[in-house]
Amino acid sequence: MRLMLAFAAVVGLLQAVPSTQPPRGLTSIRGIKVGHFTLSERPTGCTVILVERGAVAGVDVRGAAPGTRETDLLNPVNAVEQVHAIVLAGGSAFGLDAASGVVRYLDEKGVGFKIGRATVPIVPSAILIDLEVGSSEKIRPTAECGYRAAQSASSGGVSEGNVGAGAGATVGKLAGYGRGMKGGLATASIALDGGLIVGALVAVNAVGDVIDPQTGRAIAGVRTPDGSAIDDIKRLVKSGVRPRASVGGNTTLAVVATNAALTKAQATKIAQMAQDGFARAIYPTHTMYDGDTVFALATGEVTGADVTTIGALAADMVAEAIVRAVTQATGIPGYPAARDLDAHPR
Hints:
CATH architecture: 4-Layer Sandwich
Strand content: 25-35%
Number of helices: 6
Radius of gyration: 19 Å
Shape: globular
Number of domains: 1
CATH class: Alpha Beta
Largest sheet: 9 strands, mixed
Helix content: 10-25%
């Protein structure tokens, strides 16, 4: 049983027990499709979360070095209620161009916000920086990459690891890129017998280490100087070693979703609560070197669901997806994966 359920049972947040049906991650929520496009020229790419029927959305940005598009529109005081896709991409600010391809894809299908005779797709986006990984920083996601990711989107199982926005993701760069490890992308979800579903998809490119919340042990992060094992990042922080990470060279991105009916203000609160998953599974997080951002989507099928319950479960799923992202990743030159150091949780 997942982490938060034991705690939630104690405090009485949940009125239902988990369904025995195995989850499929974010796409276990009806109306949500996920597609990736991964560039073969170097490890980078983009991931598209399509909600063509529209979904109420919120966002919470905690990192000090974010790169985003259309996030102001998600402020609860602003007018547009629904979005039609979320795009996560590598490539730093260049990767924001991937969202334009998704806009084109949705425009061709007539999906979007009605403005007179026009239909305008609403596609917020956020990027992570992976430009130091691979052969050339000139290779980054484009609008065509976003278009092709949208074309590939499906409601089936979501590919994980070195795919899409997680293709060039790395972790544990507090002591510099040369001692980091491979990050990645993963998803998780939980379904309650009452019909409520909460899921998360996370691209993990953190400056900090990934910590297994169940054991408190680092499973991917800063390696020892000889590169053979994971160093003790808390010891490094407490020793006063000045970080060698580059500003904006990192960032973990997440999309949490539920089939509940929520307002924009409630979706924003869910995004805020989901950031707790970052704090459980990444150390340190929300730093000056990260642009950590969480989007929240609500498809509106289940009425009367409790916002606190959804937020607690969203944080759970974020933490679970973060751990999965590094355990599903495979190593690339210069960045071994958790499985390479036999460091994944048992």
